[in-house]
Amino acid sequence: MDKQLIHQFIKNALAEDVGDGDHTSLSTIPSGTQGKAKLIIKEDGILAGIELANEIFHEVDADLKVELLLKDGAAVKVGDIALTVAGSTHSILIAERLVLNCMQRMSGIATKTHRIVSLLKNTKTKVLDTRKTTPGLRYLEKWAVRIGEGVNHRIGLYDMILIKDNHVDYAGGIANAITAAQKYLADRNKNLQIEIEVRNLDELKQVLAIGGVDRIMLDNFSFENLRAAVELIDGKFTTEASGGITESNVAEYAACGVDFISMGELTHSVKSLDMSLKAY
Q1: Which positions are annotated as active-site residues?
Q2: Cβ contacts of residue 256 below 8 Å, gap of 6+?
Q3: How many CA atoms lie within 13 A of 59 on its CB side?
Q4: For the residues of 116-174, what is the DSSP string, one character each?
Q5: What whole-number distance in Å separates Cα of residue 158 and Cα of residue 131?
Q6: Strands 34-41, 275-279: pairing kind
Q7: Which pairs with CB-CB distance under 8 Å and at least 24 residues apart come from 15-18?
Q8: Can you give the pLDDT at residue 168?
Q9: Residues paired with residue 196 on neighbouring β-strands, in sequence order
Q10: CB 236 within 8 A of CB 208
């Protein structure tokens, strides 16, 4: 966990939500009131975000007593209690929605990812996330993918060179894009992997003739062409399939022999896992 990043996220989220005060709690509950609450799982899945929840509670109020009953990555079922918290009721209620929003979304992502990983368990293929994340929540969403046993692709624009179709078209072709990327890294003494996206077998053949990359992304290939592409590459480069891949067809893509499958739906359209925080 990157604690500095997490604490900045929590501060920003609380500022957005609390403003100049939780006036509902302040007006209805006497100052100094103490209470307890438990986080109840209301849907089967994979738990994620419980470590983050602990940080949120303690950022709100260092005196809150939090007991984590389950761990991130645990398989949970309806009725399970993930954690309990005790202390100032005002503090518990301030933390409540942020804890739930984060844990529900992260658990939804982890659950989805875990299902995909299970579908690929008898193949060599691993599932990757993408940059199709919620602005401001990328760290949390990619953390949830890892909890679900998926693999993080690049975190942002800064930690890998990924030459996609627009880059190729603006650069004036595949050869121009690859050689320019190599020169850029050499001139700046930067050590970044280079991946290039190809849209068809002709573009793949151009890349194979030039070389100089670490990974080839095979975008929106048919199963027949994907198998042909893997055969042409013949282990010389890491392979990644992308585009139009869903839970219903991911196993068929993996059967084509690619090393990785990238799936935007791990993060961009996932259903949150239902849970609630209840006083007791």
Answers
A1: 97, 132, 164, 197, 219
A2: 223, 226, 227, 230, 241
A3: 23
A4: HHHHTTTSS-EEE--S---TT-HHHHHHHHHHTT-B---SSTTS-EEE-HHHHHHHTSH
A5: 12
A6: antiparallel
A7: 17/94, 17/97, 17/98, 18/94
A8: 97
A9: 163, 216
A10: yes
pLDDT tier, 1 (very low <50, low <70, confident <90, very high otherwise): confident
What's 78's DSSP letter? T
What are 198's two structure tokens?
A: 């190809």
Q: How far apart are CA 151 and CA 270, in angstroms?
A: 17
Report CA dihedral (15, 17, 20, 24) to the nearest 10 degrees: -150
What pTM was estimated for this model as a whole?
A: 0.95
Residue showing tokens 């603006």: 170
- One-letter amino acid of 38: K
Token match 């975190």: residue? 155
**Class of residue 183 by CB neighbours under 10 A (exposed 0-12, middle 13-18, buried 19+):** exposed
246 — pLDDT class (breaks 50, 70, 90): very high
